Amino acid sequence: MIDLLIMHASELVTCRAGPKGAVGRDLERLNIVTDGAVAIDRGRIVAVDPTRVLRRAYRARRVIDARGRLVSPGLIDPHSHLVYAGSRHHEYESLITGKTTPGRRLGSGIRYTVGMTRRAPVAALRAQARADLDVMLVHGTTTVEAKTGYGLDRSTELRMLRILKSLQHPVEVVATYLGAHVLPAEYRNRRSAYVALVISMLRDARQYAEYCDVCCDPVGFTVEECFRIGREALTLGFRLKVHADQTGPAKGAELAARCGATSADHLDYISARGIRAMARRGTVGVLLPGVTYHMMEMTPMVEGGRLRRASKPFMPLAVRRMIEGGMRLALSADYNPGTSPTQSMQVVMQLAARLYRLSYGEIWLMSTINAAHALDRGRDRGSLEAGKRADLVLWRVPEHGMVINRFGVNLVHTVVKDGRVVVEGGVLSYASRTSSSVPPR
Ligand code: NIG
Ligand code: FE
């Protein structure tokens, strides 16, 4: 007798791949079981097979009929800035009306959020983060990475980490310390003092965070500064992530590969050398189409009354070079108030198709098994295979391509996290601790 048997999925996308995830030609092979079934017991997947096989093999305490539904692994979102206060919608209006250009105001935007976050009460930050996790969950995300980086002083950075550790939510949160996000205003002209502060906070941060992230970008820190922080972090047992080459070429991809980082994220200005280095080292590239969309990076801009193209690398070509160069790639929503204010991986999958010209199979693999590898969890989750965590989504549509073709509406029907049904009929079915009066941002 097992806990749960899901049967008759019209399509069951397992997102199974080799031990390192889906790379190169693997991205063309999306494993699909038609009329599929999944057997689940004690939070883990016991078997994945056609219904006719599993129906005979198991008796279950609960059976879910998934007729007419696609069944997939829970979505994994390997990059977010979950804890913050305040909204930056005014900044977006300046951008869309041409009063400012993308990239130019990113540093000051981040510093605005830092000011709001430093002043916010802990209870409000925690309540908002929980509310955001609820939104992620009903949109199919079952694991999310979450960074600090809006504190940039000792007390606020540690407060953010403690909040991340106290969330107690079905969406599993993987905590990252991002002290080196941007230079805080009070350290202007004192860069090395701030880098020293970031390093001095590492030991305390390690109690709460698994990863250390550094922003190796014109808006953040230099390769040398990031290297110093990363080297120290490694000695304390952190694994590394890098915000790399987002607003200009900064050799962030090369740095990530050299330090053995788990992932380098953004990569808009990645160099050919960076692609080679990351492919060789197996560093996962995390792509963030929500940023490309929200920062209008592929949209002609009007500046001073004249139309001009944003002088950005053309992302579909850059992404294709990364795939052909043998890089492991994942997708993420990069949920944050400035460059990508969405909690929905579904939207991100839709944008990846439209903006990066990725195929349906590539998008599914990059949002599941490869995203798990971007969090060093590829052996534990990210695909529907015996032995893995029972994190699954049952969709309102019967085929995987329909999740990407439709856009802007939530297509999730049921979410199972660690074998427990936590969303049913599109609404939360676990006892949410989110209070009904979440304070406005
Ligand atoms: O897009 N270099 C930092 N980039 C962050 C921005 C966060 C924000 O705008 O608040 C990112 O991931
Ligand atoms: Fe980010």
Explain briefly what this protein structure is:
This protein has 441 residues and is of the alpha/beta class. The chain has 15 helices and 19 strands.
Give structural notes.
This protein has 441 residues and is an alpha/beta fold. 34% of the residues lie in helices and 24% in strands. It has 15 helices and 19 strands. It has helices at 51-57, 89-96, 106-119, 122-138, 154-165, 191-206, 223-235, 252-258, 272-281, 289-294, 315-324, 345-356, 360-367, 369-373, 400-405; strands at residues 2-13, 32-41, 44-50, 60-65, 70-73, 75-77, 141-147, 172-180, 211-216, 239-244, 263-266, 284-287, 300-303, 306-309, 328-331, 392-395, 412-417, 420-424, 427-428. Strands 1, 2, 3, 4, 5, 16, 17, 18 and 19 form a nine-stranded mixed β-sheet that branches. The protein binds N-(iminomethyl)-L-glutamic acid (NIG) and fe (iii) ion. The site of N-(iminomethyl)-L-glutamic acid (NIG) has 17 residues, from helix 3. Fe (iii) ion (FE) binds at residues 79, 81, 243, 334, 336.
